[in-house]
Every structure is written in C-alpha cells, then in structure tokens.
C-alpha cells in the first residue's frame, strides 16, 4: 500500500502490482528487442510468442480442452451481446435468457435483433438482489442456447453453481469473475469475458467457444463479427489489442506463479468472507444480496441513509480508498475486490468501516 491508492473500482480495476512493475521495467525495451510492446508489429515473431503464450497459459489455468477455441477480440463485453446471437442462433433462432441485471438485460435486448429471444427468469422484482431459479423443463425445447451473466458486477450476485440447463447449450458472460474460481469449461458452449476486471487493462475480450459451434454465422455477417474468421487467423485477422493481450499474458503468468486459479479462489474466498462477515454483524451496514447468491468479486452494501452513504464514500476517498460508490442505478456502496485486490486492501476497508460506524452511531 502506501504510494498507491486502494482501488475498489468495478473495472477498469486494480492489477497485480508485480505485473505493473514488470510491465514498467519492460516498457522501453521488451526482452532486448529495443521496442516497447506498444510499438511492436503484431506480425513480429516476438508478438506471436506473446499471444501464443497467453493462450497456452489461459488454457492451462482454466483447463480449456482442445475442442475449444480461445479468441482475443475487441469490442468489449458489449460486442459479445451481438456476436453471441449472430454466431449461435443457427437452428431454431430461439434463445432463452436469464435476466439478472443490467448487463444480462442489455445482452437480451441486443439478441432480440437477431431471433426469437425470451426471458426465462428474472430477478427484477427485487432489484436483482438474487439469482432467479428456473426449471430446466421451462427452457423451450428447441432453443439454440441459454444465456446467463455469471457474475453481476452492478448488483453483486453470482451463480454459485452452474445452472442446470439439461442438454441445452449454455453461454455465460464471465466478465467480472473469470479466473476467480475453477470452472468446468465443458459445461459451457461459450464463455466470454472482457479483460478490464480480472485480466488486463481494457481493450481485449476473451472468448472461449466450442469449435463445432463456430462457422455457422449467416453469410452477410460483418467480417469482424464472425468467430470463424478470428479462429482461422489466430485472433489476428486484423490488428489485435496487442498491449492488452501482453498484459493479460503477464497476469496469466503471475496467476500460475502463485498456484493457479485454485489458490486465487482461496484468497478470494478469504477476502470476501472477511468483508461479508463484517457486514453480517454490523449495526450500520447491510449487505444487499441474498446470502447464497453473493459475489466474491463485487460486494454491495448500504447504510439505509443515502446521505450517510455519501459521507462514507467521501471519507474513504480521503483515506486513499477509491471508487466505493455503488453503480449509479443502485446507489449505496460497492467494493469490487477482484483477484488483484490485496487482502490488506480489504482489511483497510473493514478498519475504516468500524471507525465510521463508531463515529456515526
Ligand atoms: N458484462 C459484464 C458482467 C460487465 O460487468 C460489463 C461492464 N462492466 C459488460 C458486460 C460490458 O462490458 P464492456 O464495457 O467491456 O462492453
């Protein structure tokens, strides 16, 4: 801590200090090339190694089988809201979506441009404070896929088990939880994640997609929106977001060096556990999410008094704890404690919460 603020931003968000230091050291001269990765041709042997290593390390970390492509794309999570339906609505052109918040809703609305899209379940009735249940029998029999947002960044909810969709294809937006827990990739047809939370600076979006699902987009699909093009060209049909891919690769190496996703998950459980435990016993702060659906990454809470919330957030800022205000649509507070948030950051937040509680009783 010290010279760096404790950054609770929901994304772009804090990155591992070790990775930032290595990137800084390599900024002007990457491995003796005399160039920065920012300046390097994506067609160079050096960059080819960067992207190949990044892919391999992600495959190792997530145990991604060979029958899945790993793509590094641009356009953020938002472009996946349209690429998913364009590429996967290939038979009935029907899909069922679970509405668990803003990002799921945006994906659902975008998909409606491309097919017959239905909301299978929603938690809008309680301001998205829980993960809605559904029965697999309620899924329309002939859907091309079922879509979920695995971790709801704004509301702080998370699927604590993989939803049972029977034999249907499952698609998940894991933008705000990728690499924070071990996931059985084979249960999903497609997983995507924008990088700017657990992976890298903004700019790259990871798509993990089963190979047999690729190559069926309509003929008039704009070239960038067809997974097949990116798969065929090793994510380099056009200039990729080189620096973000390099940073993602460095984060993957760092994760491997600490013991992989299993170790990371243990750390995440410990950090979030401390914070929820404090919230559950606090007389001032209340967590906003149903216990069984809580996110390890985005912890949302309120005092019940919007003025007090504001005072809390302002006081935190004075103490070097940034970005604790909840999303503009929810108010209250949100502490995003992604993989790179050190445990001391959470400890400092809890210490301040105690102090604030004593002073404002
Ligand atoms: N999905 C989730 C879960 C998100 O949190 C976000 C943005 N924070 C998005 C999608 C949209 O991503 P982007 O801003 O990269 O388009």
TrEMBL record:
Belongs to the class-V pyridoxal-phosphate-dependent aminotransferase family. SerC subfamily. The keyword Amino-acid biosynthesis applies. The modification N6-(pyridoxal phosphate)lysine is found at residue 197. It comes from Mogibacterium kristiansenii. L-glutamate binds at residue 43. Homodimer. GO terms for molecular function: O-phospho-L-serine:2-oxoglutarate aminotransferase activity; pyridoxal phosphate binding. GO terms for cellular component: cytoplasm. Catalyzes the reversible conversion of 3-phosphohydroxypyruvate to phosphoserine and of 3-hydroxy-2-oxo-4-phosphonooxybutanoate to phosphohydroxythreonine. This is Phosphoserine aminotransferase. PANTHER family: PHOSPHOSERINE AMINOTRANSFERASE. It catalyses: O-phospho-L-serine + 2-oxoglutarate = 3-phosphooxypyruvate + L-glutamate; 4-(phosphooxy)-L-threonine + 2-oxoglutarate = (R)-3-hydroxy-2-oxo-4-phosphooxybutanoate + L-glutamate.
């Amino acid at each position: 801590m010290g010279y760096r603020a404790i950054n609770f931003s929901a994304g772009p968000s804090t990155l591992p200090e070790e990775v930032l230091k290595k990137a800084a050291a390599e900024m002007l001269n990457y491995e003796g090339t005399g160039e920065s990765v920012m300046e390097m041709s994506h067609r160079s042997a050096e960059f080819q190694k960067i992207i190949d290593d990044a892919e391999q390390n992600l495959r190792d970390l997530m145990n991604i089988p060979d029958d899945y492509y790993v793509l590094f794309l641009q356009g953020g999570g938002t472009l996946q809201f349209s690429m998913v339906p364009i590429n996967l609505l290939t038979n009935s052109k029907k899909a069922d979506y679970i509405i668990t918040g803003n990002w799921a809703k945006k994906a659902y609305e975008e998909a409606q441009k491309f097919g017959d899209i239905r909301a299978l379940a929603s938690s809008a009735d309680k301001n998205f404070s829980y993960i809605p249940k559904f029965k697999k029998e309620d899924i329309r029999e002939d859907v091309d896929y079922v879509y979920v947002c695995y971790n709801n960044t704004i509301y702080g909810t998370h699927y604590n088990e993989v939803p049972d969709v029977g034999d249907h294809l499952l698609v998940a937006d894991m933008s705000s939880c990728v690499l924070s827990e071990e996931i059985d990739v084979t249960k999903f047809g497609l997983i995507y994640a924008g990088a700017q939370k657990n992976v890298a600076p903004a700019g790259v979006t990871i798509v993990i997609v089963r190979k047999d699902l690729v190559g069926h987009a309509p003929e008039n699909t704009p070239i960038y929106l067809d997974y097949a093009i990116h798969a065929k060209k090793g994510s380099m049909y056009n200039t990729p977001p080189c620096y973000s891919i390099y940073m993602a690769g460095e984060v993957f190496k760092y994760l491997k060096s600490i013991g992989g996703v299993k170790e990371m998950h243990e750390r995440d459980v410990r950090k979030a556990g401390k914070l929820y435990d404090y919230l559950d016993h606090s007389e001032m702060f209340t967590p906003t999410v149903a216990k069984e659906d809580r996110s390890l990454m985005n912890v949302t809470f309120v005092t019940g008094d919007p003025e007090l919330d504001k005072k809390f957030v302002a006081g935190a800022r004075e103490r070097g704890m940034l970005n604790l205000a909840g999303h503009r649509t929810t108010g209250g507070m949100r502490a995003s404690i992604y993989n790179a948030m050190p445990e001391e950051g959470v400890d400092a937040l809890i210490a301040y919460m105690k102090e604030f509680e004593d002073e404002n009783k």
